[in-house]
Design goal:
The protein is mainly beta. The strands form nine sheets. A five-stranded mixed beta sheet has the order 1-23-22-21-20, with no helix packed on it. The longest helix is centred in the N-terminal third of the chain and has 4 residues. It is globular.
């Protein structure tokens, strides 16, 4: 018999989204470009598609993908950046690109867009991509790609209609890709890149998210847990009921329990913990105005969730929940939180700094966060810069007091500019062109675009 879960009411009103503590990074890095969903239409909507972060569990290195929206080095490929745990930028020069210009059907380039998932292990970067096989005429396919430090690569095709989010799971035994549509297909690949088997599960389930737990592949559906044998790809017994009449979103595992996020049919969003037999241990009610995009566990077994606003008026959210479901804390940062990865005693979060522009950030946050009741802190306020273009002086109005200012050119290189006072920036020494002002305030980082002309 399934036990009754303990339920913690975390929040029942979107108003809580304005009472989060602002994250204080251990270190951070920003770029003045990246994919902005407000300026992109069609199949490439959503900055989270091309902005991912992953931690190598063997080397500890951090890897980030960012869309080359300004076409600095490519026609919209994704840049791959590498950092040490202390924030040192170890990215090779030129910046590696995820994508290939190989011509596919209809003369269109393959793998040009959409990093759907990113995993790194022992120096090898695995990325699930949209494989462009005559995209505008015949549809698309998916692929698992990998590249090592020497730039050597391999690719395994996943079949057509992989336009939804694909899941790539990697450990020392190889790679598993899970197709997120009804009639799911799992692709098993060995560590050298050779396909081992393609397993259609034969069911009508839609696997919303998946995780590895020892020799099992765990899949979360709309109400059930599926357990697949890693060695054979076969389903291990009947589906395990977790909840009724709802939609599954995210799942992870500590090897003994599953932690998952779902939306019940009567409204709301919950994070829950259960054993693999379906006995629910606890549930936490989450704010409804957030689309949760990533779920990870820290070394203490605490769930960390990131999510984005559903509308421009609400802040993104990080929720840290106690391992027993009995305490929590909420945080915000920037305009979006696109992805989350854990390692080195830190949580790494990517997103966009400001709503409406292409600025992208990576922050490292210590996992030594004490959970408890949420605290109230004023939201990040805006800054206005004018005139644009400016010839000698850029005026800055509104917002919190600026603690630090940095200026980047369109290639992402920091350039020299002086701020003699809080209300003006001397740009007389800058050559004409497009620039980005990054201001650090007590409320967080704010980025503004401006131009210089003579």
């Amino acid at each position: 018999m399934r036990s009754a879960p303990a339920i913690l009411i975390l929040a029942m009103s979107p108003s809580l989204l304005h009472s989060q503590a602002t994250l204080v990074p251990v270190w951070s890095h920003t770029w003045p470009y990246g994919q902005d969903p407000e300026t992109i239409s069609g199949p490439f909507i959503g900055s989270s598609q091309d902005n991912h972060v992953a931690v190598d569990p063997i080397t500890g290195s951090i890897h980030v993908t960012i869309d080359d929206q300004l076409e600095l080095n490519s026609p919209h490929f994704d840049h791959l950046f590498t950092f040490a745990p202390d924030g040192t930028d170890n990215t090779p020069s030129p910046v590696p690109l995820l994508g290939t210009a190989t011509t596919g059907e209809g003369g269109e380039p393959e793998n040009i867009e959409s990093t759907r998932d990113l995993v790194v292990r022992n120096g090898i970067v695995y990325h699930q991509r949209e494989l462009n096989l005559g995209f505008f005429s015949n549809g698309t396919a998916g692929s698992i790609c990998a590249r090592n430090a020497a730039g050597e690569q391999w690719r395994v095709g996943l079949g057509r209609n992989w336009v939804d989010r694909g899941m790539v799971l990697v450990d020392g035994d190889g790679v598993v890709a899970v197709r997120p549509v009804a009639g799911n297909i799992m692709t098993f690949v060995d560590p050298e890149g050779w396909p081992e088997r393609l397993v259609p599960d034969g069911g009508s389930w839609t696997i919303r998210d998946a995780a590895l737990a020892g020799n099992e592949v765990l899949g979360l559906t709309d109400g059930e847990l599926l357990r697949f044998d890693r060695s054979t790809g076969t389903l291990m017994g009947p589906p395990v009921p977790l909840f009724t009449n709802g939609t599954g979103h995210l799942i992870t595992s500590d090897g003994q329990h599953v932690i998952y996020v779902y939306s019940p049919s009567d409204g709301g969003i919950l994070c829950a913990s259960a054993d693999v037999e379906g006995n629910v241990l606890w549930e936490v009610y989450l704010p409804e105005a957030i689309d949760y995009t990533e779920l990870e566990l820290d070394t203490s077994g605490r769930p960390w969730l990131t999510g984005d606003r559903q509308s421009g008026g609400d802040a993104p959210m990080l929720v840290v929940i106690g391992a027993d479901g009995g305490a929590f804390w909420t945080f915000t940062y920037g305009a979006t939180m696109n992805d989350l990865a854990m390692g080195n005693g830190q949580a790494y979060i990517t997103g966009r700094l400001t709503n409406g522009d292409n600025s992208t950030y990576l922050i490292a946050v210590s996992t030594e966060i004490t959970v408890g009741e949420p605290v109230t802190e004023a939201p990040v306020t805006g800054l206005t810069v004018y005139p644009s273009p400016a010839s000698s002086t850029l005026h800055i109005a509104g917002g919190s007091r600026i603690l630090l200012s940095r200026v980047f050119d369109a290639t992402g290189q920091e350039v020299q500019a002086t701020m003699p006072g809080n209300g003006a920036l001397d740009v007389s020494g800058l050559v004409p062109g497009v620039y980005f002002l990054q201001a650090t305030t007590a409320s967080g980082l704010i980025t503004r675009r401006f131009a210089v002309a003579r």
